[in-house]
């Protein structure tokens, strides 16, 4: 909007100068307004170019700033999922989750179909038949650390490039169906701090984003306290090669 107002203002100024030249200025002095108009045209051209380029440069810069943040959120998500696999719940204890990765063991299970004799009759008139059932057995254990060998999980709660800032971690519960309560978690950090120093008008638009190809809302986050989800609020291209590694 400001760019449009600038263009309109420049046109009005140009028209005013042209009117003054024709109406009042002697012929021998008309070279002065010409220089003024040339300077105005150059200034306006620079402003138009800047107005076009700023959103393009902002879009590129925000992606580069979001990438490491999303990478850390994915590590937190993976840690929470493994914690849930072992304990049946999520945690907001940051140091406890790091220690869990260092020390916990994950059960290795095997599911087989076996044939069992099942009584389809009664205790006084039994009717034994063969029935296939699925049986899951624990056949061993493996360290949780195995899944984090190439991941910087020790610093996963620190927001990249923001000294002294950590992700917010919350846990809760959601009633998925009547009578079934399921644990939830959410990790997030505000966009404003990540985008600090960029064009304020464009940052404001970014905080209000609702498009499917944008990170919606005021936070970059993973998980949810309102629904059963371990997904992030970023678009799919951050998960592809060239976005953020899975």
Molecular structure report:
The protein is α+β, with helices and mostly antiparallel strands and 246 residues long. 41% of the residues lie in helices and 24% in strands. It has 5 helices and 5 strands, in the order H-H-H-E-E-E-E-H-H-E. A 3-stranded antiparallel beta sheet has the order 3-4-5. A two-stranded antiparallel sheet has the order 1-2. A hairpin with an 8-residue loop joins strand 1 and strand 2 (128-143). Helix 2 crosses helix 3 (94-103). The longest helix has 57 residues, at 31-87. The protein is elongated, with a radius of gyration of 31 Å. It starts with a helix and ends in a 22-residue tail after the last strand. The model has no long low-confidence stretch (mean pLDDT 85).
Keyphrases for this structure?
246 residues; alpha+beta; three-stranded antiparallel β-sheet; two-stranded antiparallel ribbon
If you average the pLDDT, what whole number results? Answer: 85
Radius of gyration: 31 Å
Helix-residue proportion: 40-55%
Overall outline: elongated
Largest sheet: 3 strands, antiparallel
Tally the beta strands. 5
Count the DSSP helices: 5
What spatial order of strands do you see in the largest sheet?
Answer: 3-4-5
Low-confidence stretches: none
Distance between the termini: 39 Å
Helical/strand content category? alpha+beta
Summarize the helix and strand pattern as letters. Answer: HHHEEEEHHE
Beta-strand share of residues: 15-25%
């Amino acid at each position: 909007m400001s760019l449009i107002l600038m263009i309109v203002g420049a046109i009005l100024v140009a028209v005013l100068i042209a009117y003054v030249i024709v109406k009042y200025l002697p012929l021998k002095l008309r070279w002065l307004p010409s220089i003024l108009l040339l300077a105005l045209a150059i200034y306006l051209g620079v402003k138009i170019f800047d107005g076009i380029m700023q959103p393009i440069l902002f879009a590129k810069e925000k992606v580069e700033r979001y990438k490491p943040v999303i990478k850390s959120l994915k590590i937190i998500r993976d840690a929470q999922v493994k914690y849930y696999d072992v304990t049946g719940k999520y945690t907001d204890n940051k140091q406890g989750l790091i220690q869990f990765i260092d020390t916990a063991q994950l059960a290795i299970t095997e599911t087989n179909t076996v044939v069992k004799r099942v009584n389809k009759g009664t205790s006084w008139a039994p009717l034994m038949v063969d029935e296939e059932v699925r049986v899951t057995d624990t056949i061993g254990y493996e360290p949780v650390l195995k899944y984090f060998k190439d991941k910087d999980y020790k610093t996963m709660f620190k927001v990249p490039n923001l000294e002294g800032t950590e992700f917010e971690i919350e846990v809760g519960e959601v009633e998925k169906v009547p009578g079934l309560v399921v644990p939830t978690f959410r990790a997030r950090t505000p966009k404003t701090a990540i985008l600090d120093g960029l064009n304020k008008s464009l940052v404001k638009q970014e905080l209000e984003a609702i498009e499917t190809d944008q990170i919606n809302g005021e936070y970059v986050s993973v998980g949810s306290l309102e629904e059963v989800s371990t997904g992030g609020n970023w678009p799919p291209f951050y998960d592809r090669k060239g976005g953020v590694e899975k």
